[in-house]
Design brief:
The complex is a heterodimer of chains A (296) and B (249). Chain A is α/β, with parallel strands linked by helices. Chain A contains 14 helices and five strands. In chain A, strand 4 and strand 5 form a beta hairpin. Helix content of chain B is 53%, strand content 12%. Chain B is globular and about 55 Å long. The chains are: A alpha/beta (296), B alpha/beta (249). At the A-B interface, helix 1, helix 2, helix 4, helix 5 and helix 6 of A face helix 1, helix 2, helix 3, helix 4 and strand 2 of B. Chain A: Reversible hydration of carbon dioxide.
């Protein structure tokens, strides 16, 4: 069910590839953002020193005294100014870069924001991990308006979780997306936690489905080196998550009535590359699922 | 990371708009297949462009994440966290659900906050709403939306908490916009109610909680300028968990 092979090189694909990357405008933009990225405030450095905490109040004083770095937001004592007092702080950078991004986007395409303001018609529902290294719209090369997103710890799906259930309901039933993607990734902290035996408080009930998978596949996972076992459990988790999506009657109906497709992906944080799992079910499995889960 | 060229993207989108006009199942199947194929091609191009700029970009990421931000936003496709903030892969931990809610009993968002604060030690938590939010709109509508009802009821509760202020706004659109802002502020309060946030702030002076609203009409973020320390004090009057022995959630 719902497996797409990466084969064809049709006209549409070629066109898509050509128009989405070949313009000098987007190359220039890439360049300028890349430059920012390699500037002193490298993402992996810590802008706050844990050993020398500064109180909010003293931040405020500092920023009021030297507002120069924050001319975008002249009011004193705002949180923006507080963060802006530290030149390496990426929070202030985020707000500033947003202004640049909005201006650039509006210049390049004056009708984009008005169009977005009129509604959304995303084709893809993305269920992925909260991990900062997995920004879906970025690594899919897509745009605002393309991907409806739910991200949680370790892209776990619980049948009774109201949050993800509401997301799936809204995306499939109301937005009528064409693809539902469950994406796991390598080096996932949630998966690693579930392969360990440390009490993590409130995280434990959330990671419960991962431990169930660990139990069911114990021998296999124990036979593997740690990182390989983590990747394997991430993969099993994606398959299990897809099963839970497919057990929802609205999803089964959408598959039958309008060809909704489901995909299981793994994102390799070490290479940035996405790969698709073969998640095709046998006819027997599909029949059993329809019998047990489809409601009218 | 590239800035998308919106003009070209729009042309691309128009190709997709044609999908609704495709009659046959075969055409639909072909279309669906192609629309996913181009994503994998985009992904490969993104990888190449990152490597051109920084050969060890992915090596560094594979070593682990240490984001400074937790972003809690709406699932809405028009509000992609990294793009609107101009941040890179590795910089922001992201949770997105319908209408950027932080319900007190939602294990999903609570586990995200817990992990981000206690394990990743984020310095800022941003709750970001957006104008034209379909979830908030739905919550203002007297309609039975089945499974969505209990989730959206949280927004009706926000209305009830601020009933007087909202009822006094005569213009319907202005009232809707204000509810979107108040919904963000209530989500911020719910974040501040957690033991993880209260204890970490007491020990480390972070994280700081911020409330933003993204305007789809111009692409700009509006900072609601929440006075974090004042909110924290206010919330702790009733919800103080900072010195409890049992320090979970």
């Amino acid at each position: 069910m719902g497996v797409v092979r990466l084969t064809g090189q049709s006209g549409l694909i070629a066109r898509a590839a050509g128009i989405s990357r070949s313009s000098s405008g987007s190359l220039l933009a890439t360049q300028s953002r890349a430059t920012r990225m390699t500037a002193p405030s490298v993402p992996h450095t810590k802008p706050f020193s844990i050993s020398t905490p500064v109180s909010c109040a003293s931040h405020k004083n500092t920023s009021a005294a030297s507002p120069s770095s924050l001319d975008i937001n002249p009011q004193p004592k705002s949180q923006t100014d507080i963060a802006g007092a530290d030149p390496t702080d990426r929070y202030a950078a985020g707000l500033r870069l947003n202004k640049e991004w909005a201006a650039q986007t509006a210049r390049d395409h004056p009708s984009l924001f008005p169009t977005l303001a009129s509604g959304q018609t995303p084709q893809i529902l993305w269920i992925g991990c909260s991990d900062s290294r997995c920004p879906e719209t970025t690594f899919l090369g897509l745009e605002p308006g393309d991907v409806f997103v739910h991200r949680n710890i370790a892209n776990v799906l619980h049948p009774g979780d109201l949050s993800s259930s509401a997301v799936i309901e809204y995306a499939v039933q109301h937005l009528r997306v064409n693809h539902v993607v469950v994406c796991g990734h390598t080096a996932c902290g949630g998966v690693a936690a579930a392969l360990g035996n440390k009490n993590l408080g409130i995280l434990d009930p959330w990671l419960f489905p991962l431990r169930q998978l660990r139990e069911r596949n114990l021998k296999l996972l124990q036979s593997m080196p740690t990182s390989e076992a983590a990747s394997k459990l991430a993969e099993l988790n994606v398959r299990e998550g897809l099963n839970i999506v497919k057990q929802k009657s609205i999803v089964l109906n959408a598959i039958q009535e309008r060809g909704l497709q489901l995909h299981g992906l793994i994102y390799d944080v070490g290479s940035g590359v996405l790969s698709e799992l073969d998640t095709e079910d046998s006819e027997e499995v599909i029949r059993a699922r329809l019998t047990a889960f489809q409601t009218e | 990371m590239r800035l998308p060229n919106p003009r070209i993207a729009s042309q691309f989108r128009q190709v997709f708009v044609q999908r609704d006009k495709m009659a046959s199942k075969t055409e639909m199947h072909q279309y669906l297949k192609q629309s996913l194929d181009h994503i994998f091609q985009n992904n490969k191009k993104w990888v190449s462009s990152k490597k051109e700029t920084d050969a060890s970009f992915f090596e560094k990421l594979s070593a682990g994440q240490s984001p400074d931000y937790l972003y809690i936003g709406c699932s809405d496709s028009r509000v992609p966290a990294n793009e609107i903030m101009g941040l890179e892969a590795g910089e922001v931990f992201v949770h997105r659900n319908i209408a950027n809610l932080v319900p007190n009993v939602d294990l999903n968002v609570m586990s995200v906050i817990n992990y981000a604060v206690r394990h990743l030690k984020v310095k800022h938590i941003i709750v970001c709403g957006h104008y034209n939010c379909g979830g908030v709109k739905a919550a203002l509508t007297p309609a039975d939306l089945g499974l969505l009802n209990p989730w959206l009821r949280n927004i009706r509760d926000v209305y009830r908490l601020h009933e007087k202020e909202l009822d006094e706004i005569p213009d319907e659109h202005a009232r809707y916009n204000r509810l979107i802002e108040l919904n963000v502020m209530e989500s911020c309060r719910n974040v501040i109610k957690t033991a993880a946030v209260q204890q970490s702030y007491e020990d480390n002076h972070y994280p700081i909680v911020h409330g933003w609203v993204f305007d789809l009409g111009d692409g700009l973020l509006k900072d609601l300028k929440i006075d974090f320390e004042a909110e924290l004090e206010d919330v702790k009057k009733i919800y103080c968990l900072s010195s409890g022995a049992n320090s979970e959630h």
